[in-house]
Amino acid sequence: VVKALFIREKYMALSLQTFYKTTGRSLQELSQRPPDIDAYEDLHESPVDSGVCERLDMRAEPNTNQHLCVYVCVEMIRRSTELDLPYPDLQEYIADMNVMMALIINGPVKSFCYRRLQYLSSKFQMHVLLNEMKELAAQKKVPHRDFYNIRKVDTHIHASSCMNQKHLLRFIKSSMKKYPDEIVRMQGGRGQTMMEVFENMNLTAYDLSVDTLDMHADRNTFHRFDKFNSKYNPIGESILREIFIKTDNHIHGKYFGHIVKEVMSDLEESKYQNAELRLSIYGRSMDEWDKLALWAVSHSVYSDNVRWLVQIPRLFDVYRTKQQLSNFQQMLENIFLPLFEVTINPSSHPQLHLLLQHVVGFDSVDDESKPEHHVFNLDSPSPARWCDDDNPPYSYYLYYMYVNMTVLNHLRRRRGFNTFVLRPHCGEAGPIHHLVSGFMLSENISHGLLLRKAPVLQYLYYLAQVGIAMSPLSNNSLFLSYHRNPLPEYLSRGLMVSLSTDDPLQFHFTKVSGGGARRSCLRTRIRSHGCLNRDSDL
């Protein structure tokens, strides 16, 4: 278990992400007398070929000392400067992954972790029985603080569904009245006005209702991610999705910008609510970042209550089938090269430079339950050689996102800019190794439902205090019924959990009420568990 924590600490430090301080202090004490490495030799299921070593190819060939050389040409310097920026070695990562995979199926380790988790649950129940009334009395003594005016952060919410159905319906109706003659899309080389779009659907503003909008997830979406994605289309029409909730369209995301600003206004009015909205970058073309930044700056979608995450859908197979990409390396370059360019020379993408000041990290999204046809190992093709129509596995996506983000973070820190974190959707469905990749490479994750089936990983997530943004209402419509959701169990055991809304458009009937009451949850957890039971657990 300690070995696993050292592995996570190494990857967090390398990428300039945060590792929990209490655990870090205990590991620092242990590092003075490191654990017996022989004790872990039996955990390796397969030997690692020492002669094979993967390299990341980003414009410049890496040198031989396991670092990525980024050649920076800045006009003010008027000469070429070579920066030696660290990045992880694939061979070492695969070896660490093998250790982790063997660890979570090791019988004695599973028994130990299960018993520790049971102990934590029992300890919390004992705390509730003994101190519930004392806590209530203590809460009443705190002036001007209750559930509604503690500061709350919705740590997992998608921008394209950050409003509820009624809000979107009102906005569509008002847009039909205000801009009936505005050309909103092109069809067959001819512009279509707002009124013509709805006339072609035989609809008027009077006909529209929440029921005809039909964007609420129901029992038909359970274990059907394809049907859930179709719920993003108002009235089942992808045309309306393109017009109202896309940033890149004929009107340059005008309506989407307006409705996002209305959501921001609601957050500011409530004063104590904050949100981290997710915007999409697909990696199909190099100009996606500039288009997104142009939308954000031109529509002034800024609020002190909002920060942005960039989500990258795992859809390489779709783009490859449509001949939009030739290999996975091209997708990586489309995503990360503009970020390197704007970090080196902010004037090359001025609007993107402004946007990145409010971006806090990257997310990886898609249906985790889709079968994976490849296993990520040393024999896997490099990104430049991944030309198959099959999608790379989850761990492949996550590793190469992490590698590029690591190099980018070191470059941005040298330039004095903000750095980014990796916070993917992880453990919502699919195989358990997704959570292993998330534990090694991610600062926080979203969902984490499968931890309930893996006691070793659940205990490791507790010890490392990996943040888990959970969305019981979302899970109820997609993968796990509400009464079986493990959030109360995670909380009682001391895992770092927060409530989040995910997609209010699909799951909510009322206004967004602040998302994750993270502080109130953590207040209860900290009182019951103190500082991670440091003496007994580390």
TrEMBL record:
Its cofactor is Zn(2+). GO terms for biological process: AMP metabolic process; IMP salvage. Its EC number is 3.5.4.6. Keywords: Hydrolase, Metal-binding, Nucleotide metabolism, Zinc. Pfam families: AMP_deaminase (PF19326). GO terms for molecular function: AMP deaminase activity; metal ion binding. Belongs to the metallo-dependent hydrolases superfamily. Adenosine and AMP deaminases family. This is AMP deaminase. The lineage of its organism: Eukaryota, Metazoa, Chordata, Craniata, Vertebrata.
